[in-house]
Design brief:
Blueprint lengths: L2 H5 L1 E2 L2 E2 L2 E5 L7 H10 L4 E7 L18 E6 L2 E7 L3 H12 L6 E8 L11 H11 L3 E7 L7 H32 L3 H13 L5 E6 L11 E3 L7 E9 L5 E9 L14 H6 L3 E5 L7 H6 L43
Parallel strand pairs: 3-4, 3-7, 4-6, 7-8, 8-9, 10-13
Antiparallel strand pairs: 1-2, 5-6, 9-13, 11-12
Helix pairs in contact: 2-5, 3-4
Length: about 325
């Protein structure tokens, strides 16, 4: 590895290895633009799907072999194409391909925003989440789709945001260390240390860039929450040349939801509509903490799970039966004497 790369730093945190992936495939222009922009932060390893994997969310490959091949540009090794999902790329890249765990994981640039409830379907975001599983600071980066989209400008903006976030993370850690050293109350010191040790996941950020921000010489970044307004799934019915019906999924606002009044707190969807770059900290812990707290009283409830309240065990089922060959002698084909 180039010694100069080992000296590159962001604030006081040295960035040695960066794992870069996406869900649009290894030949996507957004990935190439992001690779160039990240080179100033460290040594970039490109590990991306061999084909487009949009909308696969956090799927992983475990029922079939996971393979990859080297990709070259002008006879120079450029990256690894994985025959799997974005999450597979992070798993395989971190565990097998890279010489050591990366210091930073970036997923993108995705062609199309990943904001609001669509974060849950995004392969781009899932790759960043996988990085956070490893305890590594991870970013998902997306650009609003436009026929004239400029990934080079977007990548430069994204790299600047990432650099600033990493600097702020380091500054916060320095301040936290100062607080612990200056704190005279031993109980508080132990409390702070315990809280810090409980955090085992990496910082996780979802960065979305609207097309309007690309022409702004000083684009504004806003830290916002994810909009969780559900979408109503609508299918357009069409007929193929053979006369068979097929369906095309489209999303519209959920008609069951009342029209929202002006929210006091800006969300990612609303901010993007105003041409603002959005930065949303995410957490893969899906526990509803408020409900969990309210449900603590249930622990004292005697749960009635006796057999008499269950369905009759003799009830027949119309479910299809599944037979396996486990433990059965191998079938011998018939042969003539």
């Amino acid at each position: 590895m180039d010694d100069l790369l080992l000296q590159k730093s962001v604030g006081k945190k040295k960035i040695r290895n960066i794992l870069l992936t996406n869900d649009d495939g290894i030949y996507a222009p957004g990935l190439a633009a992001m690779e160039r922009a990240l080179q100033r932060l460290g040594n970039v390893y490109v590990v991306a799907p061999s084909r487009e994997q949009s909308g696969v969310s956090h799927s992983i490959t475990f029922l079939t072999p996971l393979t990859f091949k080297n990709v070259f540009v002008d006879d120079k090794h450029w990256g690894w194409a994985v025959d799997g999902s974005p999450a597979d790329c992070v798993k395989l890249g971190a565990a097998e391909i890279l010489p050591e765990l990366p210091d930073l994981i970036v997923s993108g640039i995705n062609g199309g925003l990943n904001a609001g409830i669509y974060v849950l379907y995004s392969g781009t975001v899932a790759a960043a989440i996988e990085g956070a599983f490893y305890g590594i600071t991870s970013f998902a980066v997306s650009l609003e789709y436009n026929e004239n989209e400029s990934f080079i400008r977007a990548a430069d903006i994204a790299a600047n945001v990432i650099e600033n976030v990493l600097q702020k993370i380091e500054q916060d850690k320095i301040e936290q260390d100062k607080l612990e050293l200056s704190e005279s109350n031993t109980e508080n010191i132990d409390k702070l240390s315990t809280t810090q040790n409980q955090k085992t996941s990496g910082d996780l950020y979802n960065l979305n860039i609207p097309f309007a921000a690309l022409s702004n010489p000083k684009p504004e970044v806003m830290v916002v929450e994810m909009d969780v307004t559900p979408e109503w799934e609508s299918f357009e019915r069409r007929i193929d040349p053979m006369g068979r019906p097929y369906y095309w999924l489209s999303g519209i606002p959920d008609p069951r939801q009342p029209l929202k009044k002006q929210q006091k707190q800006m969300t990612d969807v609303a901010a993007l509509r105003q041409g603002l770059i959005t930065l949303t900290p995410l957490n893969f812990n899906l526990t509803d903490k408020i409900k969990s707290k309210n449900m603590q009283s249930w622990q004292t409830v005697k749960w009635n799970l006796s057999e008499q309240n269950n369905h009759n065990n003799n009830t027949t089922s119309n479910a299809p039966s599944i037979r396996t060959t486990a433990g059965i002698k191998k079938y011998q084909p018939f042969t003539e004497n």
